[in-house]
Write a structure and sequence with these properties.
The complex is a heterodimer. Chain A is of the alpha/beta class. Chain A has helices at about 65-70, 95-100, 120-130, 140-150, 170-180, 200-215, 225-235, 255, 260-270, and strands at about 15-25, 40-50, 55-60, 80-85, 90, 105-110, 185-190, 220-225, 235-240, 245-250, 320-325, 325-330. Chain A has 9 helices and 12 strands. Chain A has an 8-stranded mixed beta sheet, sandwiched between helices. A 4-stranded antiparallel beta sheet of chain A has the order 2-1-4-5. Among the domains of chain B are: about 75-115, no CATH class; about 150-365, Orthogonal Bundle (MetI-like fold). In chain B, about 60% of the residues lie in helices and about 5% in strands. Chain B has a 3-stranded antiparallel beta sheet, with no helix packed on it. Chain B is elongated, with a radius of gyration of 27 Å. The chains are: A alpha/beta, B mainly alpha. Chains A and B meet through helix 2, strand 6, helix 3, helix 4 and helix 5 of A and helix 1, helix 10 and helix 11 of B.
Chain lengths: ~350, ~375
Amino acid sequence: MSTASEPSIVKPQTLIAADGLGKLFPGRSSWWGTTSSFVHAVQGVSLRVRRGETLGLVGESGCGKSTLGRLLLRLIEPSFGRVFFDGKEITHLSEGELRPLRRRMQIIFQDPYSSLNPRMTVREIIAEPLRIHKLVKNANEELERVSELLQKVGLRPEMMPRYPHEFSGGQRQRIGIARALAVEPDFIVCDEPISALDVSIQAQILNLLSDLQDSLGLSYLFISHDLNVVQHFAHRVAIMYLGHIVEQLPAQGMQMTARHPYTRALLSAVPAIDVGKRHLPVVLEGEVPSPLDPPPGCAFHPRCVRAIAGKCDTDVPPFEDVAPGHRLACFNPAPAGTIDLAP
Amino acid sequence: MSDSNPSPDRQSVVLLLSRKTVARAAQLAVPVMPYATALGVTFAQLRRHKLARVGAMVVAWIAMIGLFAELLAGERPLICKYDSHIYILPALSPKSAPFQSVAEYEAKRSPSDWAVFPLVVYGPDTEDRERAFLPPMRTDHVLGTDAQGRDVFARLVFGARTAFTAGFAGMIAFALIGVALGACAGFFGGLVDAFVTRLIEVLSAVPSLVLVLVVQALLPKASTYTLVVAIVLTRWTEVARLVRVEVFRVMSQDYILAARALGLSEWRILRRHVLPNAIAPAIVAGTFGVATIVLIESSLGFLRVGLPKDTTSWGEMLSQGRLSFDAWWLMVFPGGCVFLTVASLNLVGEALRDALDPRLRDAAVTHDHEAPAKS
């Protein structure tokens, strides 16, 4: 399992790992076509997802969550860093070498309206991966497999000949999940799978994902901007800000253990239902800086109440273990403790 | 598994389709015929559009008239008995015909011979200088004759053939070129896109009619085919432009990313996922393109530029009408044909555009509510 080239991040129970992964998108270009600036979408992120585990990835829009998910699946090429899947580096595999691995990692999308080809029937959508990866021998087997998959995601097999436009958002999301499950993956990137759905349907989809994890032993990277959902759905949570992961900690009790000022600001913004426990949210000043021109030092320092002048604005804080299973990138973290006891 | 005995877990599928259909489709690896295809929705919309329906019928009729021109006008019979032989459709081939005109038949026939002639017994090029400028409905020239004494009806019928051959051949050619180049530009991007885009820009700057005029005037043997080629060379750019943009739109959709994540080959993604969703504007542009080609062909005929002298064209008839205003039938009939054809094609094109517009179509499609999940 371990060779010299593998960093300490790859451990036996690790299914997929990123090591210093980064992506620069060309930004503005001068008129003769040379790129003069880059969008720093993901900047040297290291993380790992264990087998059968859900890692929640939380951050504001535009912080690079989706890009990170796509980098892990090699759907976009990383600018630097490495990706490991099942103990094997896949960063530089060709598309042909990657094909057998494509089966083992899948993605489900936020927008159920653009994630299904409108010109294909549900049956064709789900059968296509089965055929490509030769998972079925003949048409009878294919029909049985598709109908089994539909039942697995809570749809009726007689929906097979229908087209996507005949379904609701939640049903479409289920079809997308069935398509991903068709190739029997080990790892699924859930790219905000419930953000576009009604609240009641959000719960249904979450329950479905959770049931599937239990029965199939799936690992998820669950991308969301809803910390509340992630706290309850994920085993561990990674907080992302402007292309960096600033804190990574167990989801259980993170209200108490979170220490990064940004994480605490996010937690304090989660609406509380219990009126008696009302607290003042930590209000972040200003806007997220442009990823075209990220600030020096800690990316969060221009908006951070705990920033130390001369330190946070010049040095990049290292991403270090502060407790078992808890990693943090901050020079001046808040003490652990409840957040909602603000005056 | 036999046709008559599908397994119990297949029962549920059978609700919408007959048991046999599903079982057979499964055996033959043929996708089960959908009951509401996207194309079906489009045609349902098209059918509701009354004017477009009329337009489509007019176009179909004129196209059929052009296709079966020999059966409607010509000097050789459709079927005849001559010299104890039965000849079938000598109208189609001069060589196999025992005689070449009605006059010859009348002169040579024996009492036992018979012949069934087309509706009008004059070909488009049958000249009779003594019977020039006959008005309609006076003689057996139902729609009159022109300056050379040629039958107007016969010339209209063969003019339809010229117009529609040029129109449809041209449309198919420029649609194919446009879809291929536009799809490549959008799909591969980069240098391919830069090259195709520059090509489109350069060619779009040349006015179609002017280019066609120049090409036809310079070619030593200009014909309807060179005319079509010249039109195709300028018209494909519009299709390519539309398809390229549409491919860009489709490429940004999540189902393309899903297809990549599933490990589909680039070719399969282009063929199965990109093209079916990106050719709608090409269909619309193609319909309008037929109308444009018919117009250009008539214009050239009218100007008497670049088409061989013996080409039967509505435009050429119109130009005769210009020479003698008294002969109104030389303007009204071919003019009416051009107008009807172009207007009908435009009606169909506009209805197609409406039917294929996803914003309008989505409004027509009802989304049912989330069905109860696991029960």
